[in-house]
Amino acid sequence: METIEKPIISEELLEYLKTKTEEEKQVIVHCCFPATAFVGSLIRVWQSTFLIDDENLHRSKLIHAENISIFPYWTEVPPFKDYWFTLIFSGLPKECKFFDLKEIIPEEGGFWVQRIKRNKTDVYRVKIT
Fold this sequence. Notes:
The chain is mostly beta strands. Helix content is 11%, strand content 41%. The chain has one domain. It starts with 10 loop residues before the first helix and ends with a strand.
């Protein structure tokens, strides 16, 4: 019976691949827009929404939005019911311990959730106020 030898991979290549894997990580943020009594409330997210790690001078970009429109379109929010949507961002640096979810827009009312504590799964639930 023939033995198959394990391939030898250089340390440099392993380090390079490790950094590439970390770059591909994504951060998932499930957002709750609390219920209101108003009929016809509208919500949207701008592409200029980021996860900001001020300590490491890093911004994770918005990759995908689920269950919410992206500017210039709007999503109607039903009255008397919390509204949930999901945002997917590019990965945060491994040194990151806290970050902000911030929508940087040229008008008032942008999303801003401060000091979200980093966890091992990089999946979060936040309330938009």
